[in-house]
Amino acid sequence: MASVSDNCTVLLNTDKQNLVSQEEILKQLEDSNDKMKVKALKSAILMMLGGEPIPRILMTVIRFCINTEHHEFKKLLMLFWEIVPKYDSEKKLLPEMILVCNALRNDLNHSNEYVRGSMLRFLCKLREPEIIEPLVPSIKACLNHRHSYVRKNAALAIYHIHKHHGSALVPDGADLMNDFIRAETEVGSRRNAFLMLFNEAEEVAIEFLAAHADGLDDFGDGFALLVLELTRKVCRRDPRQKSRFVRFLFQLLGSQSAAVSYEAAWTLVSLSSAPTAVRAAAATYTALLSSQSDNNVKLIVLERLAEMKQRQSRVLTEVLMDMLRALSSPNVDICKRTLEIAIDLVSPRNIEEVVGVLKREVVRTRDSDLENCSEYRTMLIQAIHTCSLKYPEIAGSVVHVLMDFLGVDGAMDVIVFVRANMEQNAPLRSGLLKKLVNTLCEIRSSPVLSVSLWIIGEYAEGEELLKLGFDEIANAMGNPPFVCCQVTDAANTNPGRISENSRSVVLADGTYASQAGAMESQAYGDKTNISPLRAFVSNGDSFLGTVAVSSLTKIVLKSRALYGTNSTLTKQRQLVMLAVCCGVADLIERSTSEKQYSPCKSVNSTSPIFSGASADCIERLALFARLILDTEIQAATVEAYLSDSKISFSQYLRHASNSTLVVEPSSKNLSTPALAQVDDLISWRQLRQVTSASGDLDL
Predict the structure, then answer these.
(1) Which residues on neighbouring strands pair with residue 520, listed in sequence order?
(2) pLDDT in tens, 122-175
(3) In Å, how far are 430, 484, 489, 490, 503 from 493, measured between CA atoms?
(4) Contact indicator for 556, 572 with CB cutoff of 8 Å
(5) Which residues, listed in sequence order, are joined to residue 516 by a DSSP beta bridge?
(6) Which region holds residue 252: left if phi is over 0, alpha if psi is between -120 and 50, else beta?
(7) CB 132, CB 126: distance < 8 Å
(8) What is the average pLDDT across 601-607?
(9) Cis status of the peptide bond prior to 481, with omega within 30 of 0
(10) Among positive and negative, which fits the CA dihedral 649, 655, 661, 666?
(11) Number of helices (H), then strands (E), in the chain
(12) CA 662 remoteness from chain centre
């Protein structure tokens, strides 16, 4: 078995069940057929990696395989030389390895550049100085080979020899590489030579870099990345050396390679917090956002920008508009991360431009085929809402555009934004109310309709808006009764007709009876015959119906204050409001009766028992009817009903605005230290053994 302390540079999966015997391997290696030798050497390598010793194989390979010209076999031989035991039990080099060194030297002097280069790469893995020492002259000679593949691998071999064996084998390694890199023109060879100088002769590398600063762009991406690594290494060890590398960093920011420019920007920011450096790095990051098509690259760049925002937000504000170009990406994660960064960078100088970009993006989501379009639209609306909370003066330029999206996904965010602007921007109320009333029939969501009705009831003031709001809600609700919609044949029925429908039910005594119910027929071929508001209410949305009655009640009370109690217009609106109120109450009663019906109940128990939401809705409807019909109600009660809701909402907005201002600076703080570590021991007193002798007895 191989010693545990042996150096292992190769690891392959070994299936010991399919391995051949040692005698068969030795016999196949002596065969003149190269394919048989390849198969045998593969089996031998797998056995040796699995810990199976083959004592006689080394001499057999030297005798029958070492002079082959078969390329695949040469590759396998390099693996074999790498894993074969090279020392005896006394830690002395085996005599057979002298012949191996001769074979390795022959490959280093081979006429084929591929054989030379492969052997040089193999020598990078060897750690035995006794084997490498005779090969050093041949390795140095390869530095002057005509082919670049040989030269760059020779430079790499010199680096690894000098790294692991110091100056014992290559005492002139630094001077050798210095002369080599100054005469070399090939990109890969120059990079490997600079790698040697960077790690083994740092001052020589810096001197070469200073002497060739003007031609740094021509040295290749690999060389530039090494320069950046050298910069970080030197400057972190000695910050006073930053001035020697600033020129290189700014030069590499404009590299054609995305990897080089990204690393240069990151290095510049990590070493300097000067506004000039941060501004240059931010410009490089935003340029990468626009030029790169890989979504992973964009997300990485955005994370870097988010880190910069925590410390250099003022400088980052200058490139905010360039950053917003990333919103053109079809990936929602990129757009979301961009918005999260951009919202915190909004200032009075760029708020109009930022909102203009967000508004264009919202309009673009209407007709585009973006991935997760509704989710992206919701994020944009929330971003605009956040901007309007910080800078209320921009609300008027976007709210009318957003109201076009009340009938699609994301309408809830739009109506919440409209509701906030109704309270905070009094000059906009008239225009917003008119547009909201005109788009009421386009809203297809019950929660959005509820908020819209509340807005109309609260903020409708003046003769024109009261008439417009009342007529639109009344027309949308229609005439009672509100009954369930049924799909019928458009050719045989008239839309809106009330028809009788009966069904057989089983009574408590076991007899049959016929139960009749009214249903409102609708031709689904023309959905415009019934408004969404009436459809929701007719299908049992009693809460929405109660909100609609509440809005009508407020408008009627405002009309009474404007026109007087005995006005004909006021009386007409009272009749319409009471009819709708009774219709909604009847709908709630019928719905509750159907839910409570059971064959086990008594026949005489016909009065429904209201509970939960139904009881609340009935109570509110009764209050609305009293406000209209009871003349003894004090004026203060009516005034409280009309104004308290608006006052509460105003207080909520002020609290939300103050919370935003307080939370925003704290978001810039770094993460708080952990109160406990994940591997801390947890002591469970309840699980400990309770004995009087242990002292843990809980008295």
Answers:
(1) 485, 498
(2) 999 888 888 999 999 999 999 999 999 999 999 999 999 998 888 888 888 888
(3) 41, 16, 6, 6, 20
(4) no
(5) 502
(6) alpha
(7) yes
(8) 46
(9) yes
(10) negative
(11) 31, 3
(12) 26
DSSP string, 583-602: HHHHHHHHHHHHHH--TTS-
Tell me the residue type at 239: P
Q: Can you tell me the distance from the alpha carbon of 365 to that of 361, in angstroms, rounded to the nearest whole number?
A: 6
Mean per-residue pLDDT, 487-515: 46
Three-state secondary structure of 520-557: EEECCCCHHHCCHHHHHHHCCCHHHHHHHHHHHHHHHH
| Alpha carbons 283 and 289: distance in angstroms, whole number | 10
User: What contacts 580, CB < 8 A, 6 or more positions away?
Assistant: 474, 477, 480, 545, 548, 549, 552
Q: In this structure, what token pair is assigned to residue 41?
A: 């050497």
Q: Are 400 and 415 in contact (CB under 8 A)?
A: no
Give the DSSP per-residue string, 173-216: HHHHHHHHHHH---HHHHHHHHHHHHHH-HHHHHHHHHHTSTTG
Compute the average pLDDT of residues 164-191: 88
DSSP structural state of residue 70: -
Structure tokens at 483: 């009954």
Cα 400 to Cα 53: distance, rounded to the nearest angstrom:
83
- 143 neighbors 159 (Cβ within 8 angstroms): no
**Distance from first CA to last CA of the chain, Å, rounded?**
62
DSSP tag of 406? T
Q: Rounded CA gap, 102 and 131, in Å? A: 10
- What is the tens place of the pLDDT at every residue in 37-91? 888 888 888 888 877 888 888 888 888 888 888 888 888 888 888 888 888 888 8
How far from 542 is each of 96, 469, 495, 506, 556, CA to CA, in Å? Answer: 97, 21, 23, 28, 21
Amino acid at site 157: A
d(CA 443, CA 402): 13
Report the DSSP pairing between strands 498-506 and 512-522: antiparallel
What mean pLDDT value characterizes the chain? 81
Nearest to 467 by CA among 434, 509, 506: 434
Residue type, position 393, single letter:
E
Tell me which of 307-321, 623-637, 685-699 is least confident: 685-699
Cβ 464 vs Cβ 497: under 8 Å:
no
Sign of torsion over alpha carbons 613, 616, 622, 623: negative
Taking residues 206-219, report their average pLDDT: 83
CA distance 234 to 211: 18
Tens-place pLDDT, residues 444-483: 889 999 999 999 999 998 889 999 999 999 998 888 887 7
**Rg, C-alpha atoms of the chain:** 42
pLDDT at 218 over 70: yes
Residue for token pair 């090939």: 186
Enter the DSSP assignment of 93.
B
